[in-house]
Amino acid sequence: MAELKITLTRSVIGRPQNQREIVKALGLGRVNSSVVLPDNAATRGAVAKINHLVAVSVAE
């Protein structure tokens, strides 16, 4: 199964609470932190909500 590498590229300071909660739920903490998650509908939906804060690539 494919996996996505998600990297937080921008800070959540000043962002709405729901966006902060999504970042935390994905397991991202600080700027430039990365996680590898399965490529499924739930992950893609969460990333779509915060796509202006993250960088997504295919994990190897």
Automatic annotation (TrEMBL):
* One cellular-component annotation, GO: cytosolic large ribosomal subunit
User: What does the record list as GO biological process?
Assistant: translation
Cited CDD domains: Ribosomal_L30 (cd01658)
Q: Which keywords does this chain's UniProt record carry?
A: Ribonucleoprotein, Ribosomal protein
Q: Which residues cross the membrane?
A: none
Large ribosomal subunit protein uL30-like ferredoxin-like fold domain location is 4-54
Q: Which GO terms describe its molecular function?
A: structural constituent of ribosome
**InterPro entries, per the entry:** Ribo_uL30_ferredoxin-like_sf, Ribosomal_uL30_bac-type, Ribosomal_uL30_ferredoxin-like
- Entries under NCBIfam families matching the protein: rpmD_bact
Query: What subunit structure does UniProt give?
Result: Part of the 50S ribosomal subunit.
Q: Which family does it belong to?
A: Belongs to the universal ribosomal protein uL30 family.
* Entry protein name: Large ribosomal subunit protein uL30
Gene it is expressed from? rpmD
